[in-house]
Design a protein that fits this description.
The chain contains 16 helices and twelve strands. The chain is an alpha+beta fold. The chain folds into three domains: about 130 residues, no CATH class; about 120 residues, no CATH class; about 170 residues, no CATH class. The strands form three sheets. It has a five-stranded antiparallel beta sheet, sandwiched between helices. Strands 6-7-9-10-8 form a five-stranded antiparallel beta sheet, with helices on both faces. α12 runs antiparallel to α15. The relative contact order is 0.08. InterPro entries: Spore_Ger (IPR004995), UPF0353/GerABKA_families (IPR050768). It comes from Paenibacillus endophyticus. Keywords: Membrane, Transmembrane, Transmembrane helix.
Length: about 500
């Protein structure tokens, strides 16, 4: 049996520190041969000690000036005092501003090292002193890339949870603003924070979110999208029930509406629950300009949503089953364009839709310099070539272009991406049943939306159930307060 095996008991991972040799052996067992682990022998007064830290997670120059250097100047008041008293005296004299904490458990000790703290252990002491000296390279605050506005704040969230919380705290100067920390992911040990205003929140909502995070069995959380999957309702739905945003002003507005923001360390996207359908048609800029123009743009977003969802299926239904509904002049023009096209309307529209989806994905994954050229020029060249080759008609290209542009109008990208899947479903229904298929699919979709809830709030709130006061930020934006209704409130809770 070697020295390490002798120094390390079988239950060492959860045991307390017994000696410096025991601590060295435990770090060797947990971290292995990692090159960035530093275990340095030091002197604390007349006692032997160890300074442990991860070089890749700590500010080494700062630590040398503020932790190591004071050790050389430390003089003991009571040479006969215990090792615990020695460590406490050292902390009080020199480390008062470094957020020092005392740790007795070895598992907690290694967890603190992994997040960028330094541990100071003294021979004979029953605990170690953990000092917060972490310094991580983080991206500076910049303009959001997915939710741009012409007028409004230009700062966006970053991958640092501390930075994101400070951006929220600066806007909500409210003593009742709370941040709760949770650790999610068995391997990643990701820090997740809940942000809400105490006293304005539904207690049941907060309890359900806490339960989801505390009972999570996921192995790793690398982005807020992993947490979003945990928070989704159990029922299957293509509509997102968790709002995500890079904009601090949008998240602060949601918190003031008695919602909970979820900040995930390592992700610039902050989640908000509960989220209803109307939230995905809002933009913070709606309230930064004249209310009439904000109302107009919001109405346009709803119209674009219906265009994106129904225009291709309507084209297939009209050209396949219901030609009598089209004005004669327009019908003659459509038939003239389709003359010589070898495919039926449904195959024609699917070819163009799938081609555009491929171009969209290629434009997203290509390097930023050539991505726009691939998506725009490629669509124009392929569309023109397909028309000249007689594979598709001009009206088909117009329909697909209008549908694609309408899909980009939604302020939240994830909402528009989910609608794309529904669009293909309506195309198949129109190809089989015509208008009857579209009406049948719309009926089932409406039933699904009426039954769908996000943490007890109706997904179609504030329209179903209808609340007069809640309409001030619905499709129409009102500057003056609306009269009270009988029910009151902003939504429906089960």
């Amino acid at each position: 049996m070697n020295e390490i095996d002798h120094a390390l008991p079988n239950d060492s991972y959860s045991s307390t520190i017994q000696s410096l040799g025991h601590l060295r052996a435990h770090l060797k067992l947990v971290f292995g041969n990692t090159d960035d682990l530093a275990v340095t022998a030091v002197r604390v007064g007349e006692q032997k000690g160890l300074l442990c830290y991860l070089e890749t997670m700590t500010n080494v120059p700062f630590m040398m000036d503020n932790i190591v250097k004071p050790l050389s100047h430390f003089s003991v008041n009571d040479p006969n005092g215990s090792a615990d008293a020695l460590l406490e005296e050292m902390n009080e004299k020199y480390y008062g501003g470094l957020s020092g904490t005392y740790i007795r458990d070895l598992k907690e000790f290694t967890q603190k090292l992994a997040v960028g703290q330094a541990g100071l252990a003294v021979e004979g002491a029953s605990f170690t002193l953990m000092l917060d000296v972490k310094q991580l390279d983080v991206r500076s605050v910049a303009e959001p890339t997915t939710q741009t506005v012409v007028r409004g704040p230009k700062d966006g969230f970053t991958e640092s949870a501390d930075t994101n919380m400070s951006l929220i705290r600066r806007r909500l100067v409210n003593e009742k603003l709370r941040f709760e920390k949770y650790t999610v992911g068995n391997q990643s040990q990701t820090s997740v924070y809940l942000a809400y205003i105490d006293g304005a929140l539904d207690v049941e909502l907060l309890r359900r979110i806490r339960a989801r995070l505390q009972t999570s069995l996921t192995s790793s959380v690398l982005d807020s999208g992993n947490i979003e999957e945990l928070l989704r309702p159990r029922e299957l739905s293509l509509f997102p029930t968790v709002y995500n945003s890079e904009r601090p002003d949008a998240v602060c507005a949601a918190i003031m509406e008695a919602k909970v923001a979820i900040i995930v360390n390592g992700s610039p996207f902050v989640l908000v629950v509960p989220a209803v359908m109307n939230d995905f048609f809002k933009s913070p800029e709606d309230h930064y300009q004249w209310f009439a123009f904000g109302t107009l743009t919001r109405v346009l977003r709803y119209l674009a949503f219906f265009f994106s969802l129904f225009v291709p299926s309507l084209y297939v239904a009209v050209t396949t089953f219901h030609a009598e509904l089209v004005p004669t002049v327009l019908l003659i023009s459509i038939l003239a364009q389709r003359e010589g096209i070898p495919f039926p309307a449904v195959i024609e529209i699917l070819l163009m839709e799938i081609t555009f989806e491929i171009l969209r994905e290629a434009g997203t994954r290509m390097p930023r310099v050539v991505g726009p050229a691939i998506s725009i020029v490629g669509a124009l060249v392929l569309g023109e070539a397909a028309v000249q080759a007689g594979i598709v008609s001009n009206i088909n290209v117009i329909v697909v272009a209008l549908t694609a542009i309408s899909g980009f109008v939604a302020p939240i990208f994830t909402f528009g991406a989910n609608v794309r899947l529904l669009r293909f479903g309506f195309i198949f229904l129109a190809a089989v049943l015509g208008f009857y298929g579209i009406i049948l699919g719309s009926a089932f979709l409406l039933i699904h939306l009426v039954r769908l809830h996000s943490y007890g709030v109706s997904y179609l709130s504030p329209f179903i159930p209808f609340r007069i006061r809640a309409q001030k930020d619905g499709i129409l934006i009102f500057q003056t307060p609306l009269p009270n209704d009988e029910g009151g409130g902003n939504g429906s809770h089960e």
